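User: Hi! I have a protein structure encoded as tokens and I'd like to know what sequence might fold into it. I'm fairly new to this, so please keep things simple.
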């Protein structure tokens, strides 16, 4: 295949994959839906508890900073890369990234990781893909005990086939109502070049609040095969007021010259 065609196809795949991967972050902005007529569907008390808990979660994460390891791979092309960054959420809800180091293939850095961060900066959650009764049907599936905690498992079915909505499972901590795991497959891809997007998103409970800990996603493309992305979150801390004010004054540059600033979703 001529090199320019291969480069074009890689860029096209990366752009469309990044737009869908960013939905993993955007869907975490769990804004309570407005009063919606849901007919005669049974109402689950754990769902109301969950929606209320996500407001507490969002407020707790404002003013926080965390280290992030982003690993991306294009196995078919035998290309991979890893970015270590500092992710900061201001008191006003802006998210910025400060690159701490990168290793690996520059194509993966520019066409997968940097595009992903740029796509996140453009994401604005308006409630259309939030996990709420307005967007999903909830079915109680059972409960499990994990690390001494009782988790309620719900099956999620989107009310419509729209980009950003997924069919899968939601694990909720019975005591706090906080999310512990979200997993599934998106019901609609943003491009004909993408065949399937699946993910697992895990949270860690700290003092009764769910903090994101890990995201794994696979994107099956029609051009270059599978794209894989893993994100690890670690070392949470609160920013001091002076540092927070400085962060609000400008965005932070990440590899490739991309400046990232986005509303806090998680």
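Assistant: Happy to help. Inverse folding works backwards from shape to sequence: for each of the 266 positions I chose a residue that suits the local structure. Here it is:
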């Amino acid at each position: 295949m001529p090199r320019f065609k291969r480069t074009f196809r890689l860029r096209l795949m990366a752009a469309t994959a990044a737009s869908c991967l960013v939905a993993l972050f955007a869907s975490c902005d769990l804004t309570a839906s407005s009063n919606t007529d849901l007919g005669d569907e049974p109402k689950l008390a754990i769902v109301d508890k969950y929606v209320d808990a996500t407001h507490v979660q969002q407020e707790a994460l404002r003013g926080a900073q965390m280290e992030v390891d982003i690993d991306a791979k294009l196995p078919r092309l035998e290309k991979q890369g890893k970015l270590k960054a500092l992710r900061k959420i201001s008191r006003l809800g802006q998210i910025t990234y400060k690159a701490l180091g990168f290793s690996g293939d520059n194509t993966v850095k520019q066409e997968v990781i940097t595009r992903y961060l740029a796509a996140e900066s453009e994401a604005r959650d308006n409630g259309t893909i939030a996990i709420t009764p307005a967007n999903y049907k909830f079915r109680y599936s059972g409960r499990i005990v994990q690390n001494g905690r009782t988790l309620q498992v719900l099956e999620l079915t989107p009310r419509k086939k729209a980009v950003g909505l997924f069919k899968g499972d939601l694990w909720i901590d019975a005591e706090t109502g906080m999310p512990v795991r979200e997993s599934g497959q998106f019901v609609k891809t943003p491009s004909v070049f993408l065949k399937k997007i699946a993910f697992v998103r895990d949270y860690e409970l700290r003092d009764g609040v769910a903090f994101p800990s890990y995201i794994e996603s696979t994107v099956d493309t029609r051009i270059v095969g599978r794209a894989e992305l893993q994100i690890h979150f670690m070392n949470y801390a609160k920013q001091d007021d002076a540092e927070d004010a400085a962060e609000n004054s400008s965005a932070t540059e990440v590899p490739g010259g991309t400046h990232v600033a986005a509303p806090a979703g998680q």
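A useful reference point when you look it over: The first strand starts at residue 64 and ends at 74. Feel free to ask if any position seems puzzling.
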